[in-house]
Amino acid sequence: MAIEEKRHLGLPPGVGLVLAMTHGGVEMIDGEKRFLFGTISGGARYRQTRKRLLVVGDRVTFFEKSGEVIINERLERKSELTRFDDRGNEHVIAANMDAVLIVVSWDLPPLKLGLIDRYILASKLGKLRPVVVVNKIDLVKDSKGIDKIASMYRGLGFSFWLTSAIGNPCGIEELRKDLTDQWVIFSGQSGVGKTALASALTGVQGLKMGEILKETGKGRHTTSFTRVFPLPNGGALVDSPGIRSFGLSQLQKDQVILGFPEIEKFSSKCGFRNCTHLVEQGCVVRSSIGEPDGITPSRYESYSRIISELKQTPYLRPDYPKK
Question: What angle do CA 104, 109, 113 make, to 5 degrees?
Fold first, then answer.
């Protein structure tokens, strides 16, 4: 398979795009569409920290010497998708992506709006566009229910698609157009039909999650098991196991609100300083829950659950009105 899109064609000489990390080094592609296997120079390795480790999507400078490809430096990232582990350490999953494809299913496993909201928040924190896909739409029996949910998220400005990737496929072409020339990281629980959806989007039948873009002949045993799937309209799907769970407890309250534009809108009208929007009497956010053009109960529940998980959760008490 080959990638024919803008992300790497404009790379200057000596700059590569990281496709996979392996035990022995880095698989990448350069502006001449050469698939290369590089090792990290001693100086670059010394400069690496947990957050600065190379990940899929990174751009790196390299030079070639005696048939070997040596990586010198990682270039500045335009975006980072990160997660926190149980110890509070931050890990970058992918860099320089354009969007996060949040794949869920209507049933088997059942749709969880709270999970969608967590993925949306993680996307916004990484400066990425969240694209929500409800797959297995052929299993939907209550079309009014799913249409209401779709309308809610679309009304908030989020891309929200209904797809079926098997049987009589639907929604695939529309989703593919939305992802034109985008590098998209694949996310979602097991069992939501990601393999079938990836095959439908890429047009490659029998695609298996676990294949990587190109075998270079070296370093085939990847440590991150990240896969890259080219898309027909340009761009690619990037699948990484690290995306499947997010710990959000290390966030600050003002970061959480980035994933909830409707709460941010009403919070600007709130009469309390440092309002948590959880317990304060007279809070404008709380009074707007369930109101027409207000905040839906499910979204507020997601917000309050995430806030309650924060290690920096402020002492919950009524605050003084703003002056």
Answer: 50
